[in-house]
């Protein structure tokens, strides 16, 4: 089994489990790539003795493995496939290069043979549209599937499932629904496709929260720079004999004022004595 992941992450990864897996632009292929550079049946992936081989179906734009054009070549995890202008990376089934931990998000997991071992991640911050229109988030090739069939939106510990006025309805546990809060383990059916809703792994969430806490505690504490300027301490004198008071501008100290008056009185007395002593 191989996992095909688009280099620009514009679509969910695809699991290859069939012995003959077709890729092309027309409905009915196992992997439908609606793009002008991709032909109706562009290539095939053939499984033989647990090995996978990419076989070009005489396409005009060609099949490339690691940027070398091929007609028939074995592919292994790590290879990069290009069909027309579509870039695909070959991964191990458990690998993921999107940078997101799938264990922290809801999964829509196929439980029938039509999309065997295929799962889709439901983002926490936006709804997902399911339908056969190539502008949908999850594109399924089915005759009786509406262009925009169902909307799925994560709502805490539930998933809100809303039927978008589809011609053939949306079913939860085989009951038709217009709007329904589905729980983990519920079975979603649209046309002939059935899926199980799988909740995030609580242990993985706990581990992620623990990592975030550890990272926040490990951040360096920002310390203030030491002040190199000399300190100016303010103290209260203990007694009049231990202090020297500086007179404030415009307000002479009382001691200086009385000293001046005494000096003036002495001067006046001396002048009086001199005057009357003549």
Automatic annotation (TrEMBL):
Domain spans labelled FHA: 21-70, 128-177
UniProt keyword Disulfide bond, yes or no: no
Biased composition (Basic and acidic residues): 220-230
Region feature Disordered, mapped onto this chain: 220-247
CDD domains according to UniProt: FHA (cd00060)
Pfam families linked to this entry: FHA
InterPro entries the record matches: Cell_Proc_Reg/RNA_Proc, FHA_dom, SMAD_FHA_dom_sf
Protein name, entry field: FHA domain-containing protein
Lineage of the species this protein comes from: Bacteria, Pseudomonadati, Pseudomonadota, Gammaproteobacteria, Cellvibrionales
């Amino acid at each position: 089994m191989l996992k095909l992941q688009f280099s620009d992450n514009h679509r969910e990864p695809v699991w290859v489990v069939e012995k003959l897996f077709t890729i092309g632009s027309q409905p009915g292929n196992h992997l439908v790539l609606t793009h002008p550079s991709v032909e109706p049946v562009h290539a095939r992936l053939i499984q033989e003795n647990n090995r996978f081989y990419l076989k070009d179906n005489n396409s005009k734009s060609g099949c490339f493995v690691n940027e070398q054009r091929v007609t028939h070549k074995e592919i292994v995890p790590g290879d990069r496939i290009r069909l027309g202008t579509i870039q695909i990376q070959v991964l191990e089934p458990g690998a993921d290069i999107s940078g997101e931990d799938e264990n922290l998000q809801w999964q829509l997991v196929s439980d029938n043979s039509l999309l065997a071992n295929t799962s889709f991640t439901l983002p926490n911050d936006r709804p997902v549209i399911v339908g056969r229109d190539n502008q949908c988030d999850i594109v399924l090739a089915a005759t009786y599937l509406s262009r925009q069939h169902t909307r799925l939106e994560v709502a805490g510990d539930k998933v809100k499932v809303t039927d978008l006025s589809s011609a053939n309805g949306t079913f939860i546990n085989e009951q038709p629904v217009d709007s329904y809060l589905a729980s983990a383990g519920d079975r979603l059916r649209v046309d002939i496709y059935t899926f199980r809703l799988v909740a995030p792994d609580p242990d993985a969430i706990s581990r992620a929260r623990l990592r975030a806490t550890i990272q926040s505690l490990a951040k360096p504490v920002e310390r203030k720079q030491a002040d190199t300027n000399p300190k100016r301490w303010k103290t209260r004198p203990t007694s009049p004999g231990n202090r020297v008071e500086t007179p404030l501008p415009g307000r002479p100290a009382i001691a200086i004022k009385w000293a001046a008056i005494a000096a003036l009185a002495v001067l006046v007395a001396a002048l009086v004595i001199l005057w009357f002593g003549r």
